[in-house]
Specification:
- The protein contains six helices and eight strands.
- The chain has helices spanning about 10-50, 55-90, 95-110, 110-125, 195-210, 250-265; strands at about 135-140, 140-150, 150-155, 160-165, 175, 180-190, 225-230, 235-245.
- The chain has a five-stranded antiparallel sheet with strand order 4-3-2-1-5. The chain has a three-stranded antiparallel sheet with strand order 6-8-7, covered by helices on one side.
- It is of the alpha+beta class.
- It folds into three domains: about 10-110, Helix Hairpins (Orthogonal Bundle); about 125-175, SH3 type barrels (Roll), CATH 2.30.30.60; about 180-265, Alpha-Beta Plaits (2-Layer Sandwich), CATH 3.30.70.
- A hairpin with a 4-residue loop joins strand 7 (about 225-230) and strand 8 (about 235-245).
């Protein structure tokens, strides 16, 4: 291309008119995105400050709604910006708007599954059935909610795997972290051991847990020793249980198992193990 053939006057005029308008549109879109991010963050912080509990149900619900509003708002900003840019470039956007209406009609008629997922996600968020950070279980799948959109719920399994579940498939969901959780540990003592000594060992573990600075803040009440929970084939089953903070029951149970083994061993009390007696006859 010969540089002499370039119409610099027309180029300057285009930059001064259409080019300037495009820059203003893009700048306004960036400002709108920044304002959306700041407003959603500020409002969510103000709402979370209504209670003094860190990681409460209100905090989780607010964070979930904030992410949804920010994502939806970003999509709207990008869509409007693209339409305005196309219009400034002289491209007729009426066929595009008409096609959007046709696509919407097609989705309404043919994509019932998508509509079902979106409606399901809407009511999950509206009713606060679970939030980001909750541990839920459905259809045998257990995981931590890492993200929640109108269409799907993203779960992180205990082994690190990701489960992507359409919201329309969530029928019966068990929320393991709502309000409080329960830690429960059973220990089976052989019949030939001193059950009273074993019971006292559980009481010692209970009292130490209430004084332990690493575990006491996770407990919502005093651990209870329910007594003899069962007479098994190999011994007497005892149980220690109590309420914990949401999603902290596993940490408490690991602590109790460790301390129970140490305390029972110090009292020379063994833990029952399966055994079978075989008699051979000639």
């Amino acid at each position: 291309m010969d540089i002499d053939s370039i119409d610099f006057g027309g180029l300057v005029q285009w930059l001064a008119t259409t080019g300037l308008q495009l820059m203003i549109i893009i700048a306004l879109a960036v400002v709108a995105y920044i304002l959306l991010s700041l407003a959603s963050r500020l409002i969510s912080r103000r709402i979370q400050q209504l209670d003094d509990v860190e990681g409460s149900d209100l905090d989780k619900r607010t964070d979930t709604i904030r992410r949804l509003v920010k994502t939806s708002g970003t999509v709207v900003i990008i869509g409007i910006t693209l339409l305005m840019i196309l219009d400034r470039l002289g491209i007729d956007i009426r066929p595009i708007l008409a096609s959007v209406g046709i696509v919407g009609l097609a989705l309404g008629l043919g994509a019932q599954t998508l509509v079902k997922d979106v409606i399901g996600g809407f009511f999950i968020i509206l009713e606060g059935q679970f939030h980001i950070g909750d541990v839920i279980e459905f259809d045998g799948v257990v995981g931590t909610v890492e993200d929640l959109t109108l269409r799907a719920t993203i779960l992180r399994g205990g082994d690190g795997s990701i489960h992507i579940v359409p919201n329309g498939e969530l029928r019966i969901v068990t929320n393991r972290t709502r309000g409080w959780s329960r830690a429960s540990v059973d220990v089976t003592i052989p019949y030939d051991q001193d059950i009273e000594q074993a019971y006292q060992s559980l009481e010692e573990v209970r009292d130490n847990a209430a004084r332990d600075e690493s575990i006491a803040p996770l407990l919502l009440d005093v651990l209870a020793i329910t007594g003899i929970e069962g007479l098994e084939d190999w011994g007497v089953r005892l149980r220690i249980t109590g309420k914990t903070r949401p999603n902290k029951q596993w940490e408490v149970q690991r602590y109790l198992r460790k301390k129970l083994l140490e305390t029972l061993a110090a009292r020379k009390i063994s833990v029952a193990q399966p055994w079978r007696e075989i008699t051979l006859s000639k």
